[in-house]
Amino acid sequence: MQNSITGVGMDVHAENNVLAAVRGSSEAIVFRAEFPNTPKGRERLAGKLAEHAPVRCVYEAGPCGYPLSPNLRGNKVNASATMF
Questions:
Q1: Which residues contact 25 (CB under 8 A, 6 or more apart)?
Q2: SS3 readout for the chain
Q3: Distances in Å between the alpha carbon of 46 and those of 26, 34, 62, 74?
Q4: Torsion angles phi and psi, residue 47, rounded to 5
Q5: What angle do CA 22, 39, 50 make, to 5 degrees?
Q6: Count of alpha carbons within 13 Å of 40, Cβ hemisphere only?
Q7: pLDDT tens digits for range 8-52
Q8: Are 22 and 29 in contact (CB under 8 A)?
Q9: Which whole-number Å values give the CA distances from 28 to 14, 21, 32, 36, 48, in the listed order?
Q10: Beta bridge partners of 78
């Protein structure tokens, strides 16, 4: 499973970003994490995801989710934001 994609779901809020990840076709959670929704917290989150590359993540991009996208792209994390 070394070349498997890590799938990540994120819950993005004004105060924090919570995420959970699975690897490949496994249903077991590889990791869960919570980071503050601050510039430094978003950088740490992107770095954590980059450790598990290749990564594909999805999240809802309300007003709190838009600043996350540049951090993810800057760390070569493939993210799809659902916008409401």
A1: 4
A2: CCCCCEEEEEEECCCEEEEEEEECCCCCEEEEEEEECCHHHHHHHHHHHHCCCCEEEEEECCCCCCCHHHHHHHCCCEEEEECC
A3: 22, 12, 18, 8
A4: -65, -40
A5: 30
A6: 0
A7: 999 988 899 999 999 988 889 999 999 999 999 998 998 999 888
A8: yes
A9: 28, 9, 11, 25, 18
A10: 56
Structure-token pair, residue 81: 């934001």
Q: What is the pTM of this model?
A: 0.80
Measure the CA dihedral 56/6/66/17, to 10°. Answer: 160
